[in-house]
Design brief:
With 782 residues, the chain is an alpha+beta fold. It has 15 helices and 38 strands. Helix 3 packs antiparallel against helix 15. The termini are far apart. 52% of the residues are buried. The N terminus is likely disordered.
Length: 782
């Protein structure tokens, strides 16, 4: 399973914004133009007002690319070339270091029964990366011997395309008669190996990918036109998985009506090898207004009492879905009688449910149990399917017996799970400090029994993923902290995660000596306590003179938390800067309620929270507005865009990366329609509140001074349209008439991540952090 985070189903839909941590992007400028459309008032007020910069929405038009090129030239002329800086050199060295941990995935076993590990790796010799393999015994050694399976740089040269790795979907051994799969027993290990995968390769880093079938035995692509009739699809936001060796379940762009208005698959087809996908029969379809739909399955045959559960999922909105489930191959699909926000999964004979809205007894079928928002519960799958069937048919269903794995409190929240053959590892947060607990499936596939785990939350990141969830309870255990380098160990779930053997550890990538990590709380405008983590020197002088960088996201129920901050450490902390992460509303730090409290008309809450953290830093004399900067990307770019227009007096420098900024047109650009459950629909009365936090419409021409701003995006971003940043910059240039310091850099590659390889990432990182350091120190000295 890997770690089933609370957003796992949205991630499976490939819709979720990434948390912007290592992504960097930069800035622009060109000759100011006065447009009559914008002179009627200080701010763009009329919703119907014609937008004079719609031409910048043409992603690759000659005019748009000329604007980007001119902006990039101005940015580098003003801020300097990052590739010439010490920051760039050190960040690149860290990103390409041979000391990095090569995280790997088991894809079967050798003939001798040894696990086969696969890893994707980028370094100076392989900027686009290589896919490689080794054995577990070699991986455990000090000098792992790798064999290259696929070289993306060589493939790119051959195809004339800048390929970017986007992962793969394996053909499960249990579905492949040629895999040689044999289950493990008490006396013998599992056998067999994955023979084929579906590779997803992106052109320049976009979300849209090419699908290509790859044979792991011959280590070559399966020719679509050859005798083996390999599966292959052109560029698109495709979702595909194997149903058997020769059949795929596919959602793809097959012509009119095959995509939703958000640009994701609306249909699912059963595509047999050797046939045209257009001729493949439909097995499931949603509505055009849905975000997406798809079909997938849980193979639980290896656990006692389990079966194969096929799930059809219609994402009606980003957070609301309808699920139909079929048990076995011959069962009928049953619509699950669960709230639209509840997320189901399976473990053995149990259906697991993450409840995201209060669920009362009269609706959940229990005798008297109410499940609070954020609960994680489970119930017998057969019983719940029968309960759902009876409700659909208008019959009186039998009462259900539920079991609770996690019930939230005022300070705690569920944060996902992972699974081995016999154990479920549950993650939770307590005031944003993470806990990990172990539960064993009961005898005969019975209810879970807690066996151990953390007594209290810790300021660190921990993740446990199964080496082979079908045949073993061994784990990859990864831990890290803001100043503690990552470690990887082989652990045993049957011993509550006890380490069997330390495998890899990242050395100190920056000098963290004398640093401390502390947690603080600010009070927001409505009285809500907002936590934040601060990394600073232990002997920090509270005189307001410390260059301080505040980062935030605040959306899509994504939680921020500790993980080793390599690039932050090199680019900021070593210089003496203070780094702060704000756990504002809109995120998932305190569960679904924390997220839902900042949706749509309440979006102002996350901006007020962020401002409160900034003001708390100033009141604590960590910094002053002259020495305070902020950054964010994607939804976090909308956050920092609003800081620019709502609180310009609080910051001296701001980065707005791969952002949403035009909230009037966002739903008409690329995947924007899929986010209306988060923000609202600007083509309805929702615009009444949306316009208040649409940065593009709230630039004040009478503002004498705005903080220095660096906007960055990618031409190849096919999730958040680059026009958001382009148009915002153009409007700043027009209204500011040169008096506001504005810089814009548009990376031609990179997709929504902002960078397609390590050199680009180091470039964008150095550009951003050197911008911050230069601006804050010049303000401090002024």
């Amino acid at each position: 399973h890997g770690r089933m985070l609370s957003t796992v189903l949205n991630r499976r839909k490939v819709l979720c914004f990434v948390s912007f941590r290592l992504v960097r992007a930069v800035s622009s400028f060109s000759t100011p133009l006065r447009s009559p459309a914008f002179i009627t008032s200080n701010k763009m007020s009329a919703a119907s007002e014609e937008d004079p910069y719609l031409w910048l929405e043409e992603v690759e038009s000659e005019e748009s690319l000329a604007f980007a090129k001119k902006s990039n030239e101005h940015c580098l002329a003003e801020l300097g070339d990052p590739a010439r800086t010490e920051t760039y050199k050190r960040v690149l060295a860290a990103l390409e270091s041979d000391d990095r941990i090569p995280y790997a995935r088991v894809l079967g076993y050798t003939e001798e029964g040894e696990p086969l590990l696969y890893n994707f790796w980028k370094d100076g010799d392989n900027p686009k990366g290589i896919w490689r393999k080794t054995t577990l015994s070699s991986y455990e050694s000090a000098s792992t011997q790798w064999t290259t399976v696929l070289d993306l740089d060589e493939l790119g040269k051959k195809d004339g395309i800048s390929w970017v790795w986007k992962g793969y979907v394996p053909l499960p051994r249990s579905l492949d008669e040629k895999s040689g799969y044999v289950k493990a027993t008490e006396t013998s290990p599992a056998q067999g190996r994955v023979t084929r995968v579906l590779l997803n390769l992106s052109r320049g880093g976009a979300d849209a990918t090419y699908l290509k079938e790859f044979d792991l035995l011959t280590e070559t692509f399966v020719d679509a036109a050859g005798d083996d009739q390999g599966f292959a699809l052109p560029e698109g936001k495709t979702r595909a998985r194997y149903k058997s060796r020769d059949v795929l379940l596919v959602g793809a762009d097959t012509g009119e009506g095959s995509l939703t208005s958000s640009g994701y698959p609306r249909t699912c087809r059963e595509w047999k090898r050797g046939t045209k996908i257009e001729d493949a029969p439909l097995v499931f379809e949603g509505e055009e207004t849905d975000v997406s739909c798809g079909q997938y399955f849980y193979d639980e045959m290896h656990r006692e009492g389990g079966d194969v559960y096929t799930v059809q999922s219609r994402s009606v909105t980003f957070y609301e879905s309808v699920y139909n489930v079929q048990k076995g191959e011959d069962g009928e699909f049953v619509k699950l009688a669960i709230p639209a926000t509840t997320q189901p999964s399976f473990f053995g004979r149990w259906m697991l449910l993450h409840v995201k809205s209060k669920w009362l007894p009269e609706d959940n079928g229990s005798v008297s149990e109410t499940f609070e928002t954020g609960s994680f519960i489970y119930v017998d799958a057969d019983a719940f399917l029968e309960f759902s069937r009876s409700k659909a048919e208008g019959k009186e269903p039998s009462k259900l017996e539920y079991h609770v794995l996690f019930e939230p409190s005022a300070t705690t929240s569920y944060n996902g799970y992972s699974a081995t053959k016999n154990y479920l590892i549950l993650y939770s947060l307590d005031n944003v400090k993470e806990k990990m607990e172990f539960y064993k499936i009961g005898d005969g596939g019975g209810p879970f029994v807690k066996t151990g785990g953390d007594e209290e939350g810790q300021i660190r990141s921990v993740s446990a993923s199964a080496i082979d969830s079908k045949d073993s309870d061994l784990l990859w255990l990864t831990t890290s902290g803001y100043t503690q380098p990552s470690t990887l160990a082989l652990a045993d779930a049957s011993k509550n995660g006890a380490i069997v053997k330390g495998l890899k550890s990242l050395p100190d990538m920056y000098d963290a000596k004398g640093l401390q990590v502390t947690q603080h709380f600010a009070t927001s405008k409505d009285g809500t306590k907002i936590p934040y983590f601060m990394i600073s020197k232990k002997d920090l002088v509270l005189d307001g003179m410390n260059p301080t960088l505040l980062y935030g996201y605040g959306g899509f129920e994504i939680s921020l938390g500790p993980r080793y901050a390599t690039t932050v450490g090199i680019s900021w902390l070593e210089r003496g800067g203070v780094y702060v992460e704000a756990n504002i509303r809109g995120g998932g730090e305190y569960g679904p309620d924390w997220h839902q409290s900042a949706l749509k008309a309440n979006r102002n809450k996350c901006y007020e929270d962020f401002i409160a953290v900034g003001e708390h830093l100033v009141a604590s004399k960590v910094c002053t507005p002259k020495t305070l900067a902020c950054r964010g990307g994607s939804n976090g770019g909308l956050l920092t865009g609003n800081m620019y227009v709502q609180a310009p007096e609080l910051f001296s420098a701001i980065q707005i990366a791969v952002p949403l900024l035009d909230m009037k047109r966002y739903s008409q650009l690329l995947a924007g329609a899929s986010w209306m459950a988060e923000y609202g629909d600007p083509d309805t009365d929702d615009w009444d509140f949306l316009k208040a936090y649409s940065p593009y419409h709230n630039i004040d021409a009478s503002q004498e001074k705005y903080p220095a701003v660096l906007l960055t995006t990618s031409t190849r971003d096919d999730r958040v349209h680059p026009a958001h940043a382009r148009k915002f910059v153009k409007r700043l240039e027009e209204l500011g008439e040169g008096r506001w310091p504005v810089y814009y850099y548009e990376n031609i590659e990179g997709g929504h991540g902002g960078a397609a390889d390590n050199k680009q990432q180091a470039f964008m990182t150095a550009l951003a952090y050197d911008f911050f350091w230069g601006k804050l120190n010049s303000e401090k000295e002024a």
